Amino acid sequence: MTPGAIRVVAGIAVRGDRMLAAERPPGGAFPGRWEFPGGKIEDGEQPVSALVRELREELGVECEVGRLVSHGVHAYGDRTVDLQFYAVRLRGEPAALDGGRIEWVTPDDAAGLPFLEGDRDLIKALTREGALRAIEKSLPAPIPSPLRLALFDFDGTIADSLTDIAVSSNFALAKLGLPERSIEEIRAFVGHGVRHLLSQALGESHASLLDEAHAIYTAHYDEHLADHTALIPGAVPLLDALAGRGIPIGVVSNKPRPFTVKIYEALGLSQCERIYGPETEEEKKPNPV
User: pTM above 0.90?
Assistant: First the structure.
């Protein structure tokens, strides 16, 4: 990525020998110019997630995202734009929701339209025989029975947070003059919320200290919740693949939702639309409801 550049992502949607083009609406930058549909990647957002969001907002459709087709940098006056183009398959019939126009055009048609300069090299490449067909073939196979929602247990599935949980638990125990617990003991205690964890760590003989231990733990964990927490290998590719297919994603945790949000942001994640904690639902994890 070019330092200081505006990050933009766009989709190449193919229908036979045509591809979807969008005219920029009046009142904004470059009105009347044409481009591949897409938009700006927000801070902390992944390109695939940004593209799914932009096409939903601009065209009113979900999409499946395939391979990166082209990536380049272009200067528009005093602004530099970092452009990424992905193959996409639209679900449903797109509509121009932002006041502009959309058209299914051949690459030769596109060459005659006032496309933005940053798109023109790609259009030239797409005029080659078989280029559109190659893009269409690169897309993942359609999902036969569309998954409507994907919910993941956050701790242990998306993020490995055990070490930070253990450190804060043992900090609370030490403050109360009690012996520390091993990482394996802590592992056995997690899964039903922090009060259950601390109750097990304290033991029956020190059950009266639970509220004090909880307060110490909460204050310490709030400051150190991402010191050692890391993404589970393979989690990001899975989330990107689901987001690329337009499937809404959520994560569930028994830790207070503000803690999960802070960890989620610290790990640079952006694919999930909802984050659930014990405050947001009547039933708690691991209840299957």
Answer: no
